Amino acid sequence: MIDAMDIQITKAKRSKLKDIDFNDLPFGKYFTDHMLEADFEDGDWKAPVIKPYQPLLLEPSLAALHYGQSIFEGIKAYKNKEGEAFIFRPRDNFKRFNVSAERMQMPVIPEEIFLEGMRRLIALDKDWIPAKEDYSLYIRPLMFASDQLIGVKPSESFKFMILLSPTGPYYSAPMKIYVEEKYSRAAPGGVGFAKNAGNYGASMLASAIAKKRGYDQVLWTDSVEHKWLQEVGTMNVFFIIGSKAITPSLEEGTILEGVTRDSAITVLKEMGLSVEERKISIEELMEAHKTGNLKEAFGTGTAATISMIKELRYKDSVIHFNTDGWKTAPELKKILKDIRDGSREDRHGWKFAV
Ligand code: COI
Questions:
Q1: CATH class for domain 175-341?
Q2: pLDDT at position 170, please?
Q3: What class is the 4-169 domain?
Q4: C-beta 32 within 6 A of ligand 1
Q5: What percent of the chain has pLDDT over 90?
Q6: Could you tell me if the CB of 299 is within 6 A of ligand 1?
Q7: What is the pLDDT of residues 210-220, one digit of tens each?
Q8: 3-class SS at 296?
Q9: Residue 3 in this model has a pLDDT that exceeds 60
Q10: How much distance in Å is there from the Cα of 72 to the middle of ligand 1?
Q11: Which of 225, 297, 220 is nearest to 255 (CA)?
C-alpha cells in the first residue's frame, strides 16, 4: 500500500494564477499550476507525484487511444464563507471511480492516492478555488490504459491523474432538451453505469444533432423501445409530478449513479417531498403535462449542479415550462449552496476538508 506521505511534490516555477480572469471561466478551459500522476505497473500502484501541469509524452500505440480503456470522475471544491477550502462528497466519487474501473477491467485505485492525493493537490493550488456563487474548482480524476501495444486485450499498465480547473457554471440558463429516440446511450449489460470515456464519445453525434435543432442536450431513452427515460447527456434527470419527485431508477445499470442525484434525493426528502426512483416513460410524462400535473423538470450533475429545463421536445410535441414560478428546483439548489457555503449545517458529512 502507498503511504500518503510518499507523494513527491515538484512546484511550478511560476504561477499562472494572475494570467486568468476569474470573472470569465468557461467550463474546463483553464488548469491550475499542478497535477497529480500515479502509474500502475507490474501489478502495483507506484507512489504518486504532484508536478507542474504539463503535456504528457505518449506513444501513438497507447492502448487507451485505440480501445477506450479510460475512465474519469467529476468533483468540485469550494470555499465556504470563511474562505476555508473543502471538497464536496469525494468519497462517493472515489467509490464510483472504482466501480467504473472494475467494469472496464482496470485496477482499482487505493483511497490514499485518490483522496489524499486530491487533498494535497488542492491544498497546493487552493488559491485557484473561485470564491463566487456558482463558481468552483472542478476536479477531474482520470485513469487510462498506458500499454504501448495495439493487441486487443486488457492493458497491464495504467496512468491515474488528477487535474484541477477553476470554472464558472456549466449551463448558465435553463435548458432546452430533445428526447432522443433514434440513438442509444446504454443497454442492460453494457457500460451505462460506468463513467468511461466511450459513453461520452458515443453521445456526441446525438447531442450535435440536437444542438443543430436548437437544443442544449438530449434526454436518452432505453435502447429497445425508446420510451423509458434514462438521463440527459451530462446529468441525471428529475420530474416533479403532482407533489412527487420522480427520477429514473438505477437497477438496469443503464444510467450513471450521480452523486448530485443522491444529494438531490436526500434534500428533496428533507424538503417533505415523496421521491420515487422508478421507471418512467415518455408517455407518462406527456400525460402528466396534459393533465397539468407535470410541474418541473431539472437535471442534476457535478458540472451541471441543478439545471432547470425550460423546454422538452418529443417528436412533434413540445412542453414549455415557465421556470419563473418554480419552487422545488430553486429551493433544492439554494439548500445545496447553503450547505456548501456554510449557511446551513452539513448534516450528512458531505464536506471533506482540504
Ligand atoms: C460531471 O458532471 O462532472 C461530468 O463529468 C459530466 C460532464 C461534464 C462530462
A1: alpha beta
A2: 87
A3: alpha beta
A4: no
A5: 93
A6: no
A7: 999 999 999 99
A8: strand
A9: no
A10: 9
A11: 220
